[in-house]
Amino acid sequence: MNPGLSTRSRKKSQEWFARAQRSLVEGVNSPSRGSAVYSHGPVVLERGNGSHVWDADDNEYVDFMMSFGALIQGHAHPRIVEVVSEAVAQGSHFAAATSAETSAAERLLGMVKTAEVVRFANTGSEATMLALRLARAHTGRTKFLKFEGHYHGWYDPYLLNGHSHPLDQLGSKENPARIPDSEGIPAATFEDVIVAPWNDFAILEPVMKRHGRELAAVITEPIMANMGCIPPRDGYLEKIRQLTSEYGALFILDEVVTGFRYAPGGCQEYYGLQPDISTFGKALGAGFPVGAVAGPRSILNRMTWGDKMVLHYGTFNGHRLTMKVIAANLDLLSAPGCYKQLHAVGNSAIAGLRDVFRRRRIKAIVQGFGPMFQIYFTSREAIADYRDYCTFVDSQLYSRFVHSLFDQGIYMTPSNGLHWIISTAHTSADVDALVQAADRACAELA
Ligand SMILES: Cc1ncc(COP(=O)(O)O)c(C=O)c1O
Fold this sequence. Notes:
By secondary structure, this protein is of the alpha/beta class. Helices cover 36% and strands 14% of the residues.
């Protein structure tokens, strides 16, 4: 692609979006895809190949959103296309035992060393839903702790303090205001939820001292990925591990975003963690819908049929087509050098962007490392937690920046709460295109 090419008319995108308003709520299937985020209406995408996508007007973009991180192999990877074509011709799903699900499970367990068994569902939300049910059954406790600004899918009890709000609405760190993310959830649901700020050692100890013995679980993202990209402070995740063990609560590591992205075994391998339950999704399915809960038999076997079982049904669980994709995807990710390349490409994009902001004297930081990062327009040196994000980040400016990138052939969501994704399909030419486009976008911002 010529990075100098400016992307031009989006007339057909606008026509499709106008038409979509008549049949779809807000013209989309998730609020993160519509006018709430895309100020001129969404770019309507029609096809993708490798790291590139084309919109309804046939404009070409380098895609750094990658289906919110699901497309770890990029678009239409030849091996995935081959596997899907073969599998669909044989029958996409039987809702019965298949060899495909065992092959997928074996590969997953070969990579996620902390787990003995896995259960497949269809989305990350289903996985975190099941994880909580298992934790409650295993411990006989109902309460759990989630952190401010962490997103674990759209299951009722998780929808507390997940969106950003002005600082004056947040309450104190010691006693955060409890702000539901959705209508339609009974207040009683939240009675079982303890909310605490993340990445703060001084808060964690007293909160655990106060509530630890009544908690079924503490759930956390290893890298806070729904306020952009906020890595954990050194030793913070280890502290959660230590305190949950001390108080008899389970440690649920939500690796729906980070799983299979930073290392073959996800962030738990990268940081050397031993969670009780891990949840996966996104990159595991390489673009196909999947969720997974993995952990020791002593916990997951509670789903075994019988009295006092933990129920988990699902017509599409272990979907044959998806299981075939997972096996192929994990084989590709197991190739020597794969993660080294993901990190190298990501780090060169990060370095290039930092250089642009420095040269253009724009107050912006690029936070994260390797395959996932986010840009924050801020005068801070780092955004360390949810409250920093709510207070010090200029998300409007970020949105203007990304909208300007659309005209330079770069596709990304204008939502500052998400993150840039590197897939195995991204090349140094894509990074060059991004850096040049960012440079031009910065000139427009000035
Ligand atoms: C950390 C985390 N957990 C769970 C989910 C829910 O996954 P899904 O959208 O597949 O339901 C998400 C989705 O973005 C997520 O970021």
